[in-house]
Amino acid sequence: MDESDEDPRLPHHRNPQEFVSLDRLAELGVLYWHLNPKDYENDEELRRIREARGYNYMDLLDLCPEKVDNYEEKLKNFYTEHIHADEEIRYCLEGSGYFDVRDKDDRWIRIWIKAGDLIILPAGIYHRFTLDTKNYTKLMRLFVGEPVWSAYNRPQEKHPARKEYIKSLTEKVGMTLEAH
């Protein structure tokens, strides 16, 4: 991702364009699946992922100017670089948007999610989110236990989740469920 200050809803490709593989994202602890968003209520693969990872809470979120109070302010908050103490799990059912994550060299990687994309960001990774120019997405949010939406804005180098994340990068800790 380039470092320009243009509208965050634009793709922000570097020149020349660089693309990141799913393997490279997995090295950062970012997991990805492509599922069937039209039948999420009966999707066996989604059920297996939820069961294996302990995601027992789910809700749906429509993000668009017509359905979100203080839309611009909320988008600005989502786009502020932060971490969470827990994984962030998002399954795009409709529309699209961007998750930006920091790589090992502290550069942004932009991940464009569209309908069918399920993404898991590890606890402690610096990230942010914005919609693209279509200004609409419907997301499923998954959690272990009760939902926690606490965001800790950068810098958070002393936060336990951040320390554990950095440790996992240096020790190359494996995941119990592989993404594909």
TrEMBL record:
Localization, UniProt: Cell membrane; Cytoplasm; Nucleus
Name the UniProt record assigns to this protein: Acireductone dioxygenase
GO molecular function: acireductone dioxygenase (Ni2+-requiring) activity; acireductone dioxygenase [iron(II)-requiring] activity; iron ion binding; nickel cation binding
Function as written in the Swiss-Prot or TrEMBL entry: Catalyzes 2 different reactions between oxygen and the acireductone 1,2-dihydroxy-3-keto-5-methylthiopentene (DHK-MTPene) depending upon the metal bound in the active site. Fe-containing acireductone dioxygenase (Fe-ARD) produces formate and 2-keto-4-methylthiobutyrate (KMTB), the alpha-ketoacid precursor of methionine in the methionine recycle pathway. Ni-containing acireductone dioxygenase (Ni-ARD) produces methylthiopropionate, carbon monoxide and formate, and does not lie on the methionine recycle pathway.
Binding site for Fe(2+): H82, H84, E88, H127
Cofactor or coenzyme needed: Fe(2+); Ni(2+)
Keyword Chloroplast among UniProt keywords: no
Entry binding sites for Ni(2+): H82, H84, E88, H127
EC code: 1.13.11.54, 1.13.11.53
UniProt pathway: Amino-acid biosynthesis; L-methionine biosynthesis via salvage pathway; L-methionine from S-methyl-5-thio-alpha-D-ribose 1-phosphate: step 5/6
Highest taxon listed in the record's lineage: Eukaryota
Membrane topology term: Peripheral membrane protein
InterPro entries to which the protein is assigned, alphabetical: ARD, ARD_euk, RmlC-like_jellyroll, RmlC_Cupin_sf
Pfam families: ARD
CDD domains: cupin_ARD (cd02232)
Keyword annotations of the record: Amino-acid biosynthesis, Cytoplasm, Dioxygenase, Iron, Metal-binding, Methionine biosynthesis, Nickel, Nucleus, Oxidoreductase
